[in-house]
């Protein structure tokens, strides 16, 4: 049985989870109707012969998922290192435990799919099995359908989740379907009585790790707030419920604002988030005179071509969202300048360095310290805002074109909202995950995204 040690950050995510705070990522992918086949009644999909339309899609989805080596791995505790765990191939793996079909009424399929996604995102994945689930959602009158994917955060960060989940698409499956395609790293043999050379090397490594941990830890402490003053809507006590909403932004308009204002497309998106929050809070009648909320903006530390078996690898920037600024152009300018400062300082400063700190801690610290530290996120930031890139090429499943993919991020303890965005097909798809009781009006926030982009475009991006 092949196995691979959980990296420290993966182990932290594994132990951070509780029943009210599941630690899985998600994605809700919408597809157009599958083609009805050629004149002979066959789809031109290699592993779906002779099955036109929706029939057979569940089997196709299961076969594609089963062929992804990473999705056959489960977490197993080990004796060494103390407190550690490994990814081990599940010898009893049964894909039918992970891939299911749910038929929706179909009167308003997109809204029904988002509503069900919220319910399914509430439930932690089963920890004794490979920690992921997929749901085929059917029932749309036009034959379109959706797929909801849940991957535990210990299994992958946002970019790695895309790399793993992309295996279900026709275009990716066609080039990766070959024997022996497995990138997991085996666990090196460990002796209970290491030799002197190994002891000296381990001691030297730990001293170096301790120095880095002290440096990063100091940055995290400096960024922490002893008196977090986030609006109640973003810092309510957890109810354990989840609500999902989606929004769509025109990518060309975002680039038009960027060209006029400078900076990056991500700066424009972060300004849209700030403006949407302002518009939403104002509509709720909540005062805007308090401190601006702080966002944690993840930044990948993954190198191009890194193996699929590698786990989480990211840091983050800390950004004050200028929600109290009434001028949309000034909001964008503030975001752009703050992100420029973040990039100049690098990823080892601020609250985002907490993920780097996790990489320097021994497994036992994560096993016992994660539950105690789970509430610390509120001292560091108020909302997670992440941008998850997708492949630029057109994607399909069973010949059905991918229309939209809405990423979904987990909620930290003490927080009520997470914002994830993915550009694809000339649009940016926004996935909002919120505590269901704290944010019952999540659809109003979703609608505010398009309104805010209209406003930024009207103001010429802050010229």
UniProtKB/TrEMBL annotation:
Alphabetical keyword list: Acyltransferase, Glycerol metabolism, Lipid biosynthesis, Lipid metabolism, Transferase
Top-tier EC class: transferase
InterPro entries per record: Acyl_transf_WS/DGAT (IPR014292), O-acyltransferase_WSD1-like (IPR045034), O-acyltransferase_WSD1_C (IPR009721), O-acyltransferase_WSD1_N (IPR004255)
Known EC number: 2.3.1.20
Record flagged with keyword Transferase: yes
All copies of domain O-acyltransferase WSD1 C-terminal, residue ranges: 311-456
Metabolic or biological pathway: Glycerolipid metabolism; triacylglycerol biosynthesis; Lipid metabolism
Residue ranges occupied by any O-acyltransferase WSD1-like N-terminal domain in the UniProt entry: 6-268
Catalysed reactions listed for this entry: an acyl-CoA + a 1,2-diacyl-sn-glycerol = a triacyl-sn-glycerol + CoA
Family annotation (SUPFAM superfamilies): CoA-dependent acyltransferases
Region Disordered: start-end pairs: 291-310
Family membership: Belongs to the long-chain O-acyltransferase family.
NCBIfam families: acyl_WS_DGAT
Protein name, per record: Diacylglycerol O-acyltransferase
Organism: Streptomyces lateritius
């Amino acid at each position: 049985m092949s196995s691979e040690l959980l990296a420290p950050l993966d182990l932290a995510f594994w132990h951070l989870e509780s029943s009210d705070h599941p630690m899985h990522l998600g994605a809700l992918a919408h597809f157009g109707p599958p083609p009805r086949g050629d004149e002979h009644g066959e789809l031109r999909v290699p592993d779906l012969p002779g099955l036109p339309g929706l029939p057979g899609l569940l089997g196709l989805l299961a076969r594609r998922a089963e062929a992804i080596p990473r999705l056959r791995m489960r977490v197993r505790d080990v004796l060494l290192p103390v407190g550690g765990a490994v990814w081990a191939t599940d010898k009893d793996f049964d894909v039918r435990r992970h891939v299911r079909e749910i038929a929706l009424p179909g009167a308003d399929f997109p809204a029904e799919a988002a509503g069900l996604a919220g319910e399914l995102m509430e439930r932690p994945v089963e920890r004794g099995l490979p920690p992921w689930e997929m749901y085929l959602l059917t029932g749309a009158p036009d034959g379109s359908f959706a797929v909801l994917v849940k991957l535990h955060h210990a299994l992958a960060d946002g970019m790695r989740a895309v790399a793993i989940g992309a295996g279900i698409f026709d275009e990716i499956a066609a080039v990766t379907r070959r024997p022996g395609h497995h990138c997991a790293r085996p666990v090196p043999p460990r002796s209970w009585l290491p030799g002197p050379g190994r002891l000296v090397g381990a001691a030297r490594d730990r001293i170096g790790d301790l120095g880095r941990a002290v440096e990063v830890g100091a940055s995290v402490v400096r960024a922490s707030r002893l008196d977090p003053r986030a609006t109640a809507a973003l810092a309510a006590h957890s109810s354990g419920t989840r609500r999902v909403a989606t929004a769509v932004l025109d990518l060309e308009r975002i680039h038009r604002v960027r060209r006029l204002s400078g900076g990056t497309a991500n700066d424009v998106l972060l300004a849209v988030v700030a403006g949407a929050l302002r518009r939403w809070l104002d509509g709720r009648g909540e005062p805007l005179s308090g401190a601006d909320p702080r966002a944690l903006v993840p930044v990948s530390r993954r190198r191009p071509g890194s193996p699929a078996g590698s786990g989480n690898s990211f840091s983050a920037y800390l950004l004050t969202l200028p929600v109290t600024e009434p001028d949309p152009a000034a909001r964008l300018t503030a975001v752009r300048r703050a992100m420029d400062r973040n990039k100049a300082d690098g990823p080892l400063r601020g609250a985002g360095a907490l993920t780097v700190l996790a990489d320097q801690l021994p497994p036992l610290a994560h096993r016992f310290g994660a539950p105690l530290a789970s509430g610390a996120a509120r001292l560091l930031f108020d909302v997670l805002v992440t941008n998850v890139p997708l492949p630029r090429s057109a994607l399909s499943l069973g010949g059905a074109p991918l229309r939209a993919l809405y990423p979904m991020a987990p909620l930290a303890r003490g927080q009520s909202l997470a914002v994830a965005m993915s550009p694809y097909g000339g649009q940016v798809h926004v996935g909002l995950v919120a505590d269901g009781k704290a944010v019952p009006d999540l659809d109003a926030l979703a609608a505010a995204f398009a309104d805010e982009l209209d406003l930024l475009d009207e103001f010429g991006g802050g010229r």
